[in-house]
Design brief:
By secondary structure, the chain is α+β, with helices and mostly antiparallel strands. It has 3 helices and 4 strands.
Length: about 100
């Protein structure tokens, strides 16, 4: 079974303001994008569970022309707060790397 790191040429995460995180998955071509971009493992519910977010608030966008999926979810604490561990959210994508895709 393929994982996200097997089918994406690049992943990145970043702060999308003080209350949101955005993760971009750049698939390595149109074939893998078509096959895996709608995987249940990348659904709003799965991402919400992985990051402790409310599934109703997770936003997911497919961009076929770029072979990309963009996922945004609310932060569990605001940027710069006392419990902040990744102020710019640059490491948040790591949890997705070993996710098995169906």
């Amino acid at each position: 079974m393929k994982t996200v790191k097997d089918v994406c040429r690049n992943l990145r995460s970043k702060a999308a303001g003080p209350f949101w995180v955005t993760i971009d998955l750049f698939f390595d071509g149109p074939e893998n994008f078509a096959r895996y971009s709608e995987s249940e493992a990348l659904s709003a519910a799965s991402v919400a569970k992985l990051y402790g977010a409310d599934p109703k608030l997770v936003k997911r966008f497919s961009v076929p022309g770029l072979n990309t999926v963009k996922i945004s979810y609310p932060r569990t604490s605001s940027q710069g707060g006392v419990v902040e561990r990744d102020m710019h959210c640059g490491q948040q994508y790591v949890r997705l790397l070993d996710i098995a895709l169906d």
